Amino acid sequence: MSTQLKVAIDAGHGPDTPGKRCPDDSMREFQFNSVVARYVRDGLSDYIGVETIFTHADDGSRDVPLKERTDKANAWKADVLVSIHANAYGSDWNDAQGIETYVYTTRPAEAAKLAEAVQRNLLLETGRKNRGVKADNLHMLRESNMTAILVECGFMTNRDEARLLKDDDYRRKCAMGIVAGIVEVYGLKKKAPNPTSTPMQPVYGGKFKDVPDDHYAKGATERLAAKGIINGMADDLFGFGRSITREDVAVMVDRAVTYLEQKISQN
Ligand SMILES: [Zn+2]
Q1: Contact 141, 101 (CB under 8 A)
Q2: Residue 248 clears pLDDT 90, i.e. is over it
């Protein structure tokens, strides 16, 4: 399947970026940005011919500098870059609220079109106040070679919106708004539906991000993956809730038996 659209997804900042948090330190901006980034990636994976990369460190291991982010998107030759943020006004609680989307100061036509579509869909999904599409001289928009927008999905310094920004349902809605805007502007087509698929699963720890931490099979899936006996459906997706074929069971049991035989012969 040929690639139709390459989308670089940027979760603004890193976990340790100074400032960039709720006034009571109950949430850091990266926590919101990075989870929405994953949901955007998952949402876009439902469409034909879309490739995605993250320009930030998804595991939060470091605060990737802005230049490295745009260098990565440029080198990968992304068609689109979406930088995801939560807003702040000052450093104390106040009434500033709403969603806004940015393009570079020159208001490139394609970016402006994408920004309008994403902004409209973000408002549709969330019902928040419309602060409009704005232009600013921001690094991610200035130094990127592709169509680039930056979304501010609500204010960490507003008590109501801070509550929303911490809420998984709100994060999903923001991701859906971003995805819907991209789909609309680029005319993306959905892949054939898989009746047993469960897209946009919450994110959990361990190798497989779609198996809940408190699920009875969590330990088993992680241990079997570590031994190479079971593989996920993608790097970090187990395929939670999906069914398995008889031939796949045979392969897994064969791997397990081989694993044990090797253990025994080593002793
Ligand atoms: Zn930000």
Answers
A1: no
A2: no
